[in-house]
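Hi F.,

I've been meaning to write this up properly since the lab meeting, where we talked about keeping a consistent format for the predictions we share between groups. The idea is simple: the sequence comes first, exactly as it goes in, then the structure tokens exactly as they come out, then a line or two of notes. No screenshots and no reformatting. I'm using this chain as the first example so we have something concrete to point to.
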Amino acid sequence: MEFSKYMQEWLYGKDGYYRHSKIGVSGDFYTSTSVSDIFGYSIANYISKLITKNAAIVEIGANTGNLIASVAYFLNNHNIEAKYITIEPLKELVKIQQNTFNQRIKDKELITTDNFESLKSYDNIIFISNELFDAFPCEIYDSEDMAFIEHGNLIFKKASNKIKQIAQKFNIQRGEIPILDDFFKNLESLQKWYFISFDYGLVERKDEFTLRFYKNHKTRNLFLSPNKRKYKRDFIHDFGQCDITYEVNFEILKDYFLSLNAKEVLFGRQNRILVDMGLDMACNWYIEHFGFESYSKESSKIRTLIDPSFLGERFFGFCYCKE
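Output, unedited:
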């Protein structure tokens, strides 16, 4: 089995990790959406300038639905109308997302769907996501070979022509190559959209293995060395019980977006992008809406979002637009 298919089963299969994932401070790992609602409010401030008539805000990879609920809460309090949708193939998460949304937004409905077809009725689609692309299945590539799972072992065999072509195009000698064709075919079928996302990854090629597992806020690398094939053989015992992730290659991601004739509107480290999106305005609104005492308690969480030693410079934010 190609490693990408094994990873797909690990994360999204019948007993996959994301069907029962624990994300947040009390879970296996935390994300910007679980740190502070200010993250979503800042994105919403930026989105408020993009919304037109018959617009839909669509979150992909919503998990519990905190991000789209925060965005909707901010926009609703600014009397800005839009439809709210999550694309969610895992039925276990649909109810959780709707409950999260309904607890915070009383007069709006969260629509859930498992495909892109229903989005074609909207004139303007604004996609949002956080840590989406590092959860796509990938192939592990090394010197014209790629990884397979065989009898519970990880082995390398000759890479497929498709994976070799990607590696050659981006001059990759070693590392993870995401499987993105189907996803971008879905985007290609839509006429007009913005795609806003934040993720952890590489802006310069390292030619190293970065694939790792997260459990109880502890990181465990698959490979004993980032540039050798020797790996931790007991990883298979954690099947579906922890997260698998890797560093996103933003060069590959950019190439996919540009292939759809989308243009890059924003790209940079998370702290700068949040400021560009209006972090200060989101904070001022928070003080006006919730009071300074509440903001004082929130301020340390906001620092986590922008501090270079935490999430501020380890994550990147971007926006692409297709018109």
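Notes:
DSSP finds eleven helices and 15 strands in the chain.
The two ends are 39 Å apart (CA to CA).

If this format works for you, I'll send the rest the same way.

G.
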